[in-house]
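Changelog-linked ticket: zinc ion example.
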Amino acid sequence: MNLALWQRPAMPLPFSVRPVRGETTSSYLFRLARTNELVVPTTLLRALGEPSVSLDQYMLRDHEEIMLNSAAQQRLACFAGMPLERLRRSLPLPALAGTRASSSPRTAIQIISSLVRGHCASCCARIPGNPPIQIYFAQSSIICRRHRRWLGTRYERVQIDLSGSPEILTAYRRRDRLFRAEENQHWVDTQFAAAQAITTAWSRITDSFYHTPLLRRWEARSGVLASATQVPIPPSLVMMPETVIIAEAICDPVWRHQVATAEHYFQQRNFYAHMVEQLRLRRTTAYAFSAYNDPLRDWVERHRLQHRSTYTVRSATPHRKSAARSRDSQ
Ligand SMILES: [Zn+2]
């Protein structure tokens, strides 16, 4: 009887390949096949399990992922020459649903273009053969610290050398710290989006004496980045140091409490002065930030409206620990 490849026993291939953290199953599978010089790389895919579509008429592309049921995952680990647990520590290995009961190995193909990006080009260049490697956004950092490279987002699929912009690298370190400090990642994400909305709105104010230093700073930073790359520079990257400064303040439980209960300007004054100082701007800029048409004042007003009743009058002086964010975690 002529057995299909997936029906034959799996055995370790001569050369093993170290998986990259966050790598897609398909990226890893084809690297393993090419390293072992399989003339038709899909041979390895055929050997993993029974495919849900005929692979004879199917051409696999970069943005397609291979889903494996648990029996097929075991076979992949066997071909890779390492325990499944070790593979799992690096690869997300999305499971093929609905086949749990089946003990026979099965594979399926799914489009995942919005979930993945290319691995750091400098990291790939260090791997023999400079292979293309696809990484899940959710399982990886946006910066390669070793190569000081920005690796892109879902919307800005470019890689940019940050070695000439240490302030952006520092900003990303502070951003990571902010996310690590908070359990509710969605909440920090929301605050970050609010901070980014403020810097973006500032970048559109072109006729203000007070905002000009920020615009000049962003132009200069953009110029440094542009000199190192041919690709368009995303504005969010250029403004990241200022966005992080705002995000840190608006995530801070003490500032949140103070701003939410500050009805009059003299009560809000400290907040604007703090922002101006952190942003290294002229002290008089605090007046511009407190003007009703300014994006920062706009955030203050919205925060007050949303949260002024959240805080009770019991504690006149908020303490960092007692001012738990859970009370205004919206
Ligand atoms: Zn790298």
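Closing comment: Example verified and attached. The chain is about 45% helix and 10% strand. Strands lie at 50-51, 64-68, 106-111, 116-118, 134-136, 143-144, 149-150, 160-161.
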